[in-house]
Design brief:
Layout: H1 14-17, E1 69-72, H2 74-83, E2 88-93, H3 95-100, H4 102-108, E3 111-114, H5 117-124, E4 133-137, E5 154-159, H6 164-176, E6 181-185, H7 194-200, E7 209-212, H8 215-224, E8 228-232, E9 238-239, E10 249-254, H9 262-267, E11 270-273, H10 285-308
Parallel strand pairs: 2-3, 5-6, 5-10, 6-7, 8-10, 8-11, 9-11
Antiparallel strand pairs: 1-4, 2-4
Helix pairs in contact: 6-7, 6-10
Length: 309
């Protein structure tokens, strides 16, 4: 993931000091360089356990940067609050959403602002399905291939898949199957936040992401580490069901239309296809991933039972 170095945002506010403002005090006039004011004033919540802090005055959303991940949607935000893999900065939630996330908010201690739904729609776009909640956080920490911990014995490698909805769906499926890691190129890939995180429905917080400069080199490293490298290809010589798998296995998926690139194909130990019994023989990459993971998971389970006698 993107590096998380650099200075962290100061999370202090007037609410943290405990001072009471004088009723007739003239408000301080901010300079033009200070952060612009938010449109909607956050209101204090009647239940104090909803948030550790409520700002006395509205603050603008942070500007987009490589040091900022914006997550929205109930499941994506709930898992980020619950798992605590990343640094949490500020939570913006409607009263109803804050009520629903009360336990996670209290446990995480995240600085929370109660806002109107329109404020979130103005930030994310009118068509965004934010479900009343937006979280500003740091990107997940970087992970190296050598740091992958083998549990399920399955890893996914994505060869220039660029659609955030597809990658989000792949992440959700990977989390369901307990995939040990997903490897993606740091270029020709979307940001691991926003609509991708929303589509992943919390899966982003559960599946380690390894971003690499060169996928072919990464597959070389995995091969040297003992991974069996299986490339999914519609022209593969055998079906995945008929392909012998060993633990650990990395399934390599290509972009829709383009498939696997030449150097990626050359690094695979075997190429396999998905045989579909119905009249439609092709699937989009996220659906193909779900089928492949189901077959691979079952094959590794059978192999484990056979080894155990």
């Amino acid at each position: 993931m993107r590096k998380t170095g650099g200075k962290q945002f100061d999370r202090r506010s007037a609410a943290a000091t405990g001072d009471k403002a004088a009723p007739r005090r003239t408000p301080k006039i901010e300079s033009k360089r200070s952060e612009p004011k938010r449109e909607a004033e956050p209101s204090a919540h009647p239940r104090p356990e909803i948030a550790r802090k409520i700002a006395d005055a509205p603050r603008a959303f942070r500007r987009p940067s490589a040091e900022l991940a914006v997550l929205y949607g109930y499941h994506a935000v709930r898992e980020a609050l619950r798992i605590k893999k990343r640094v949490l900065l500020d939570l913006f939630a409607t009263t109803a959403a804050a009520e629903k996330l009360a336990a996670e908010i209290k446990d995480s201690g995240v600085f929370t602002h109660i806002v109107e739904p329109e404020t979130l729609s103005a930030r994310l776009g009118r068509d965004s399905v934010h479900q009343g909640v937006l979280l500003e956080a740091r990107p997940l920490p970087d992970l190296d291939i050598s740091e992958i911990i083998v549990n399920s014995g399955l890893v996914l490698a994505l060869d220039q898949i660029t659609d955030p909805h597809n990658i989000g769906a792949i992440l959700r499926t990977a989390a369901a199957f307990g995939v040990d890691a997903i490897i993606a190129t740091d270029r020709h890939a979307p940001e691991f936040s926003g609509v991708l995180a929303k589509t992943a429905s919390g899966g982003l917080e559960h599946v380690p992401i390894v971003e690499v400069v060169n996928l072919a080199r990464a597959l070389d490293q995995l091969g040297a580490a003992g991974f069996w490298r299986v490339g999914l290809d519609s022209e593969g010589p055998a079906s995945l069901e008929e392909t012998a798998l060993s633990r650990p296995t990395v399934l390599v998926l290509g972009a829709e239309g383009k498939g696997l690139r030449r150097l990626t194909r050359e690094r695979c130990d075997v190429l396999a296809r998905l045989d579909m019994p119905g009249p439609i023989k092709s699937l989009n990459v996220s659906n193909a991933c779900a089928v492949a993971l189901s077959l691979a998971h079952a094959a590794l389970a059978r192999a484990a039972r056979a080894e155990g006698g």
